[in-house]
Amino acid sequence: MKIFTAAQIREADAFTIREEPVSSTGLMERAAGKCAAWLEVQFAPTTPVYIFCGKGNNGGDGLVIARLLLQKGYPVRACILQHSAKASADHTFHLQLLQQQYPACLYEIGAQGDFPVLPAGAVIIDAIFGTGLNKPVEGWMAGIIHQINDQRAIHPVVAIDIPSGLLADSSSLHTPVIQAHHTLSFECYKLAFLLPENAGFTGHVHILPIGLHPDYITQTPTRYHLTDREMIRTIYHPRDPFAHKGTYGHALLIAGSYGKMGAAVLSAKACLRAGVGLLSCHVPQCGYDIMQISEPCAMCVTDEGSTHSAHFHTLPDGATYKTIGIGPGLGTQTATARSLERLLEHYQRPMVIDADALNLLSVYPYLLSRLPQGSILTPHPKEFERLFGTAANDFDRLTLLSQQAVHLHLYILLKGRYTAIACPDGSLYFNSTGNPGMATGGSGDVLTGILTALLAQDYTPKAAVILGAWLHGYAGDLAAEQLSQEAMTATDIITHLGAAFRHVI
Ligand SMILES: NC(=O)C1=CN([C@@H]2O[C@H](COP(=O)(O)OP(=O)(O)OC[C@H]3O[C@@H](n4cnc5c(N)ncnc54)[C@H](O)[C@@H]3O)[C@@H](O)[C@H]2O)[C@@H](O)CC1
Ligand SMILES: [K+]
Question: Which cofactor does it need (predicted)?
């Protein structure tokens, strides 16, 4: 699914109005109609509904919702915030309709003291500002936002299109924003919904299709995308009926150290469950028995080091190993770093770099530019910060992420609720699967195994990283469904990988 900027959404509205054709008031009626239908399912007709409307088109949506709910018998109050002398044309049109049909529902707010006393059980609809917000909200309007937020413990708050105060394409940190329980947004996600700093504002996001013109949606290029099953199905390719184990690549996993062999085992198991042809694991001597006993499907190569690997540079070449996954439980010994440096002198194929291998790169940053082009880095936010520095907010971090991916010709997967995958071509994909149950030890090691397996099977790095992140999250969702987010472990993600694949096929 494409993620459009606020300016593109305005263009999509205008394109639809022109090409469908439909009047702008008609399109507003359609959008608001979807919201009213959603509200009718959620709230009984006896529920008092307080709709706070600004003077732009977001407020216009609110006025239409008011009329539609009044027609269904809901007790509705439409509170119009007089933040500007002028109202938009569509707002004015729908205000006149409401005035003609239900004049008693209208209430004007021109100062903070005008905030109404809400009856028990009332629901608050936020239709103050939408994508037309052009600066942080200030003065008495900010006060109204704070008053609504003060009510959220007792009254459900539903935001129309975007919580008021939230900017769609740039940071709203430290500015007044509505904290909604639900956001009913039109047609597609907005970038702001996908970033952790806004987690407290949107609540549950519901995307309501309003019939924006499909030509605009398909023909307009966007930088940001949200992955969905449809996209994943175009990436996945089924196995060849004449395949043998050589067809799907021989991968090498360099992982594990004394006390951290579990990371290597989890990665190996995930790699095998994700379809690799052959897997060799390079482990220190202390890990030999552990790996051989835990995972009989993997071959094992032991390092000269007893507790840490430091001699893996001598082994791998591109002819033997289709790809390398390196990092889970590896440790950050100087000798390990030296071995990584020497490995990078001759290994040229895209690799997967995670965990301690990332930590080594942050200590020896000159190694970053020596990574094979197209390699995949999988940092969590702290690892990312150690590698590339801090950012003032999540939007700046996203810019930094993308700049580094382009500059270094790498795929950088920044883990989070919506894992962000930055590509060397400048595009950025947010992963849509996964849940907080996956915030548990070993979950990242599983991802490394999956990505390594997909690279070994000749998926391009871009396909591997998008598909791998999606499968990992979806397997996690299935595990949580069966076991709960609390009880699931990284092992359960591996167990559910098979079902995740079956969902794609
Ligand atoms: N254009 C269309 O055809 C459609 C638009 N829709 C709605 O229209 C919204 C966008 O409408 P608009 O572009 O009119 O914008 P908004 O309704 O978001 O707000 C614009 C108004 O707010 C004022 N304003 C902006 N920032 C302010 C600030 N910080 N403090 C005080 N006042 C401020 C502007 O001067 C203007 O009066 C969408 O979010 C969506 O809800 C939907 O009805 C779907 C169809
Ligand atoms: K809003």
Answer: K(+); Mg(2+)
Domain spanning 2-222: which CATH class is it, in words? alpha beta
| Residues with pLDDT less than 50, the chain | none
Give the domain ranges of the chain.
Answer: 2-222, 247-504
CA atoms of 491 and 151, how far apart (whole Å): 42
Which residues have C-beta under 5 Å from ligand 2, the single-atom ion?
Answer: 126, 159-160, 164
Q: What is the ipTM of this complex?
A: 0.97
Q: Is 132 in the pocket of ligand 1 (CB under 6 A)?
A: yes
Which one of 3.40.1190.20, 3.40.50.300, 3.30.360.10, 3.40.50.620 gives the CATH number of domain 247-504?
Answer: 3.40.1190.20
Cα–Cα distance for residue pair 156/125, rounded to 1 Å:
9
User: For residue 6, how far is its CA from the centre of ligand 1 (angstroms)?
Assistant: 10
How many A from CA of 132 to the centre of ligand 1?
4
pLDDT of residue 315: 72
CA distances for 259 relative to 239, 339, 383, 416, 501, angstroms: 37, 20, 21, 26, 32
Is 82 near ligand 1, meaning CB less than 6 Å away? no
Q: Return the residue whose CA atom lies nearest to atom 27 of ligand 1.
A: 133
